[in-house]
Amino acid sequence: MQIENNKVVSFYYELREYLGGEETREIENNRKGDPLVYLHGYRNILLGLETELTGKEVGDTISVTLKPEEAYGLHNEDAVSRVPLKRIRQKGNLKPGMVAQIQTSNGLRDAVVVKVGRFNVDVDKNHPLAGKTLTFEIEITDVREATEEELAHGHAHGVGGHQH
Ligand code: ZN
User: Fold this and answer.
1) pTM score, two decimals?
2) 139 and 66: one domain?
3) Residues with CB under 5 A from ligand 1 (ion)
């Protein structure tokens, strides 16, 4: 069965950051757990990945490299800002590089801690993968028809998908 719109697809992936030349660095992979499961054609995963997965079958392995603008966007320097410590949700043990939740006028928002001061914290509200060229090594492990309920919800259900 080929991957096309309204199919539910399972895959293992290894996500690597492309560093130039032949160099890459592994960011994460889901080899030790369950495959990721998604409903094809509903933008539940990055569009660049969906495009490359279209027409592939169980057992196929593909390598997809996406530029920042095709993945999580360019790194925006304006998104780095100084916020009062009292607007950070977790207290204590704030360290550069960790993701913290900040109280904003639009509710809680994730941001990466850049620098911790006595009263303020510099945070970067860019997506942690913004500005990175990413390579996904993908192995397709299952392709099936979506259920009517999945189509109505616009996402896959079950292990590796939405569970509600
Ligand atoms: Zn659902």
Assistant:
1) 0.79
2) yes
3) 153, 162
